[in-house]
UniProtKB/TrEMBL annotation:
PANTHER family: QUINONE OXIDOREDUCTASE PIG3-RELATED, QUINONE OXIDOREDUCTASE-RELATED. Residues 11-323 form the Enoyl reductase (ER) domain. SUPFAM superfamilies: GroES-like, NAD(P)-binding Rossmann-fold domains. GO terms for cellular component: cytosol. This is Quinone oxidoreductase. The keyword Cytoplasm does not apply. Keywords: NADP, Oxidoreductase. SMART domains: PKS_ER.
Length: 327
């Protein structure tokens, strides 16, 4: 019998239940996966708490994992039993040792990327890909502000932005995280707990501000992020780690310099199969050639997902975290 983490109600980490599940055979357009590594991401917290609604309860949870194809549906022609694959996509249910998933949401893994690294990088890495290559395509020589620079998305972003030739300003929560971000390409880590990040950004940029802010923090950094932007700069709000921005007057964008605002999601940017594959391949390329290194800094048994969520929300984790199903 397979096991999965499921939620029967929204709430704190304690609502995560480790349960036996019956997986069954794949439908015509599905594959069944034996999963070896599962990615932990902050969006999982949003689904657990109900900030992002789930289709129905009880529900699986998790959007990212890697493993091996066990069985394929009748209409699936480009995957076969034994293929090593990964994904970062709905439907929810990645926190499991075996599952069914639509075949068009799965990508085949190159030999140079192992399962744990794949599970740690797909969602975070493709998020960085669309943010810095498509939402606001960063050019060599530009200076950007990236919040939570020592997190999983942040560490990948710092490295990829440096490979492009950008100057990276990043906010972090401690001196230790500042050192970590700096080691991964962040030129100017700002410890927001003791420094005014708006004043520091203005100082670093000679009062000009930055053309883009990438903000996955939300409520706590919202106003300051807008104040860091140069005229006609773009605010890219892609997460709510500190809570949602609940009230917003669009007139503020004109007052602060004809600013642009977007609230993108990975799911929109990878909704089409060709976009998903292109994003994954771009990520594989920078990881395989060494421009971006993926570090799994924490692992937990899948059955201990509750503790993993507690540590994630307490900001005790750095880089990427992987949950390990029982083999």
């Amino acid at each position: 019998m397979s096991h999965a983490i499921r939620i029967h109600e929204h709430g704190g980490p304690e609502v995560l239940r480790y349960e036996e599940v019956d997986v069954g055979e794949p439908g015509p357009d599905e594959v069944r996966l034996r999963q070896t590594a599962v990615g932990l991401n902050y969006i999982d917290v949003y689904h657990r708490t109900g900030l992002y609604p789930v289709p129905q309860l009880p529900s699986g949870i998790g959007l990212e994992a890697a493993g091996e194809v066990e069985a394929v549906g009748a209409n699936v022609s480009d995957l076969k039993q034994g293929d090593r694959v990964a994904y970062a996509s709905p439907p929810l249910g990645a926190y499991a040792d075996s599952r069914l998933i639509p075949a068009d949401r799965v990508v085949r893994l190159p030999d140079g990327i192992d399962d744990r690294k794949a599970a740690a990088m797909m969602l975070q890495g493709m998020t960085v890909e669309y943010l810095i290559r498509r939402t606001f395509p960063v050019k060599k020589g530009q200076t950007v502000l990236f919040h939570a620079a020592a997190g999983g998305v942040g560490l990948i972003a710092c490295q990829w932005l440096k490979a492009i030739g950008a100057k990276v300003i990043g906010t972090v929560g401690s001196n230790e995280k500042a050192e970590l971000a700096k080691a991964h390409g962040c030129d100017h880590p700002i410890v927001y707990t003791r420094e005014d990040f708006v004043a520091r950004v203005k100082e670093i940029t000679g009062g000009q501000g930055v053309p883009v802010v990438y903000d996955g923090v939300g409520k706590d950094t919202w106003e300051g992020s807008l104040d860091c932007l140069a005229p006609m700069g773009m605010m890219v709000s892609f997460g709510n780690a500190s809570g949602s921005v609940t009230e917003f007057n669009p007139g503020i964008l004109s007052q602060k310099g004809s600013l642009f605002l977007t609230r993108p999601t990975l799911m929109t940017y990878t909704a089409k199969r060709q976009d998903l594959v292109a994003s994954a391949n771009a990520l594989f390329e920078v990881v395989l050639d060494g421009r971006v290194k993926i570090e799994v800094n924490q692992t937990y048994p899948l059955a201990e997902a509750t503790q993993a969520h507690r540590d994630l929300e307490a900001r005790k984790t750095t880089g990427s975290t992987v949950l390990l199903p029982e083999s």
